[in-house]
Amino acid sequence: MLGIVVNLKSIRKYQLKEKLHYPACTGLFTRKREEACQLSAYMEDEEDCPVLVPITDFAHADEPDRKIPVTIITGYLGAGKTTLLNYILTEQHNKRIAVIINEFGEGSAVEKSLAISQAGELYEEWLELRNGCLCCSVKDNGLKAIENLMQKKGKFDYILLETTGLADPGAVASMFWVDAELGSDIYLDGIVSVVDAKYALKHLQEEKPESLINEAARQVALADVLIINKTDLVAEEELDAVRSTVSSINGLVKILETQRARVNLMDILDLHAFDSLSGKGFQDKLVASAVHPHLDKSIVTVTFEVLGSITEENLNLFVQNLLWEKNVINRIGHPIEVIRLKGLVSIKDKPQQVILQGVHELYDLEETQMTWQDNGDRINRLVFIGRHLDKETLKQLFVSAQNA
Ligand SMILES: Nc1nc2c(ncn2[C@@H]2O[C@H](COP(=O)(O)OP(=O)(O)OP(=O)(O)O)[C@@H](O)[C@H]2O)c(=O)[nH]1
Ligand SMILES: [Zn+2]
């Protein structure tokens, strides 16, 4: 039987032993209290540990293919996000795509334009949003908007969500990721970031006060696909510089170069960037990405490989120290900040290879279809995107967790 086992050592830590819609998975982990509270609505008794919850109430639990992908479109102000969405909406394709555009303005009420394209036909509706904490407004109303939309218009094949130019896509992404766990009809497919070829370097190199992460760099760090738009405005050398800066931040990202955001839809949709379906391609990407780490405050990608296996418990502790406790210090005394985490790991006594995914403060372990060879070496490959990353410290920490 499918169910969630909740291990409440404290309110902020729990485990989902099996995903509601993905039986072949070992867990989704978060420490966010609000998210824990949402989950507790599905629990019978918060005090008891563990608790097994049947999911017979979820309408489509046995029809995983009914779930609708959500792609988050992010990018700095003026990069071309709306141009991209307009292009997608007017392009001929046989998907029913719902687009939600957040254009947060000044004032007490913010309106959200919402357009649905079906075979080139455009409908438009306005949803009123309450103005509050930006992050919460985006999260809560974004989800509510989608639910309303699905009720009114029936099912879509795909949802695209444009976040505001200054939003942290990690916060939005983790909301959708958690929501999928709760039996929602939608799931997070991937994050697409748009950068302006002419201003990308300026935005990415902008100095922020020490404690703040450059938002443009964070958007690149979180991207599964990165669109370098407005290539008509720059010379080849400038484009090269943008390309190499972007790859030094995010060694896993797939780069597309466009004018007027004309992309091949196949390149940005159905990425399955947050589940195990892309397991094989992901492994190749991990091997390919090798970026020189530096300890300064710029965002970089760090990868390492360690032979052997690790117990699930020790792997949890390793990840939780990084994402939740944030108590891992690099060699020059700065706490390591992980924005995005991916890995293919070998869990002790598990025949399947397991994908580790982390974004914001949320992470997930999911078994893939691939099994370890009986006579081959088991290996853990990890990729971290973030700030103050120190490959040696991270690798040492993993090895000690293995041997603990
Ligand atoms: N030269 C040039 N201009 C472009 C290109 N793509 C978009 N633009 C223009 O850039 C401006 C900003 O584009 P938008 O699509 O509104 O950008 P956005 O990211 O949605 O902007 P915000 O919502 O304000 O953050 C518009 O005037 C577009 O017409 C391109 O490839 N080349
Ligand atoms: Zn826009």
Automatic annotation (TrEMBL):
<dbReference type="GO" id="GO:0003924">
    <property type="term" value="F:GTPase activity"/>
</dbReference>
<dbReference type="InterPro" id="IPR003495">
    <property type="entry name" value="CobW/HypB/UreG_nucleotide-bd"/>
</dbReference>
<keyword id="KW-0547">Nucleotide-binding</keyword>
<dbReference type="InterPro" id="IPR036627">
    <property type="entry name" value="CobW-likC_sf"/>
</dbReference>
<dbReference type="Pfam" id="PF02492">
    <property type="entry name" value="cobW"/>
</dbReference>
<dbReference type="GO" id="GO:0006882">
    <property type="term" value="P:intracellular zinc ion homeostasis"/>
</dbReference>
<dbReference type="GO" id="GO:0005525">
    <property type="term" value="F:GTP binding"/>
</dbReference>
<dbReference type="GO" id="GO:0005737">
    <property type="term" value="C:cytoplasm"/>
</dbReference>
<keyword id="KW-0143">Chaperone</keyword>
<protein>
    <submittedName>
        <fullName>COBW domain containing 1, gene 2 isoform X1</fullName>
    </submittedName>
</protein>
<dbReference type="InterPro" id="IPR011629">
    <property type="entry name" value="CobW-like_C"/>
</dbReference>
<keyword id="KW-0342">GTP-binding</keyword>
<keyword id="KW-0862">Zinc</keyword>
<dbReference type="InterPro" id="IPR051316">
    <property type="entry name" value="Zinc-reg_GTPase_activator"/>
</dbReference>
<dbReference type="Pfam" id="PF07683">
    <property type="entry name" value="CobW_C"/>
</dbReference>
<feature type="domain" description="CobW C-terminal">
    <location>
        <begin position="299"/>
        <end position="402"/>
    </location>
</feature>
<dbReference type="GO" id="GO:0140827">
    <property type="term" value="F:zinc chaperone activity"/>
</dbReference>
<comment type="similarity">
    <text>Belongs to the SIMIBI class G3E GTPase family. ZNG1 subfamily.</text>
</comment>
<keyword id="KW-0378">Hydrolase</keyword>
<dbReference type="InterPro" id="IPR027417">
    <property type="entry name" value="P-loop_NTPase"/>
</dbReference>
